[in-house]
Structures are given as structure tokens and as C-alpha cells.
Amino acid sequence: xxxxxxxxxxxxxxxxxxxxxxxxxxxxxxxxERSIEDxxxxxSDSEKSELEDLIKETKEAIEKNNTEDIKTKKDALQExxxxxxxxxxxxxxxxxQSANESAEGSQSDNGDNVKEANYEEx
Length: 122
Hints:
Elements: H1 2-38, H2 45-64, H3 67-105
């Protein structure tokens, strides 16, 4: 009886771990889809299609319910998402930096005459 309980416990833990992997994968797919939408003007077509392919592969792995495959695809998607997101944010930071520098350069030296920097995000 004890052995059966332990076997059930191991099976329960396995199912719980599988569910967690699936949930993580679902969340990453959701994040990736949202990022494609949010960053569509800031990422290249090839980056967009790489993300879309990884999203599709991750969704297929989830449907097939293969935990190892889900982990692999989820991790690949997450890595690509992080790489693309950080590149976009680095570029945004550089653009903000250069906008600030050009605004500072256009100010006159009489201290009180401070101009606001107006720049639009592209």
C-alpha cells in the first residue's frame, strides 16, 4: 500500500511539473505574440518571422503534450524574445541618448534660456 502511494505521489509530481512547463510555455507564447504586436515597427521582418516560427513550434509542442519538446521550444522562444527585446531597447536608449545630446547642444549658454527637447519615437 505504501509503495502504491509513493508511485502515485511520483506520478502526481510528474503531472504537476508537466503542467508548470505547459503554463510557462503558454505565458511565453503570449508574451512573444504581444511583443510582435508592440514592437512591429521596431523589429525586422526576419526577426518577426523567426519569432512567429518559434511561437508556432512551441504551440505545436504544447498540443502534442511532449514535455521535453515543450521545454526545448519554450526555451528557444524565450531566448529569441529576450535577444530581440534587448536589441530594441538598446536602440531606443541610443536614440533617446542622441536626442538628449542634440537638445543639450542646442541650448544657449545664458543658463535661464532652457529649451525643451521635443522628439518623437519612431
